[in-house]
Amino acid sequence: MGEIMDRTKVMLRDLKISEVTKPTTVYVWDMDETLILLKSLLDGTYAAPFSGLKDKKRGIEIGKQWENLILKVCDEYFFYEEIEDYNEPLLDALSEYDDGRDLSKYNFNNDGFGFPYDDLNKRKLAYRHRSIKEKYSQGLHKILDQQTIKLWTDLYNLTDSYSDGWLSSAHDLLKQTFGRTDKGPGSISINVLVTSGSLIPSLAKCLLYRLDDVISADHVYSSWEVGKLRCFSWIKERYGGPNVKFCAIGDGKEECEAAQAMRWPFIKMDLRPTSPYRFPGLTMKVVQSFIDVAYGSSDAEVEEIKEACSTEAKLVHLTLNQLDASLPNMRTLIS
Ligand SMILES: [Mg+2]
Question: What is the residue range of 268's domain?
């Protein structure tokens, strides 16, 4: 595990975006029971607070269908059976082993990938990660057959309707993070996902729950071995700068404690239907208010203050000019 941490740290140092000068907000999302629903459908905790208004059995059936579909994508397209014992915290973690060879004719079925986990096998895993990354950027419509696409579309719509729009509202909010105008045209928003699930199924989930247009493959972190706090500190190292604000959003104790340790604002998701910290319900305004409390005034407020200061400065300037103009008179009086 120490090796994973050292290697990932070096890789992130190489990835680090050049010193961020534009105002940037990094939203650090948990996945399950935050952006998507899965476990709570399977164990009935999603339906429970509705006091019988939600059909718990239906939720369980929906959850099972998701599990099957996630596994199908993992096994058939993401080499999961072969690589599940070699979890890495993110897809680029092995990039130093990738020699960039053309993989279009590479035979993944016959390259002898497996034990021991030495440099040669790390290279073969890095090839698989690159192939997964390419498939992720293409999207599932390019790789799934028509029958599976129909099954997937129906399941997404069924889940969204069962949950009163949890999935589509979460997606809308992530989209809004990119379209913020109150922070000025030069501002940057970055959505990062940190999940305690293993990496490959988490990427499959991002695609299946249609989050791939708002979260890129290299922004998905698996905290499975290293814990959320370690992932959060990598994220801070990768994006940190004087103009960068972070906000973590999740339903678990681990991300809550990690956010506290990082001194980031944290929004605790809550499945209860009356809570504002769920989907639908959570809005950009609420998220921004958490950021404002943690970091002080929002950029929009700073602009207002600047505007007010500049008006005040103009007044002072005007008063000085008036004083200047009256000075000769005063001199006349004095002389
Ligand atoms: Mg969660």
Answer: 2-296
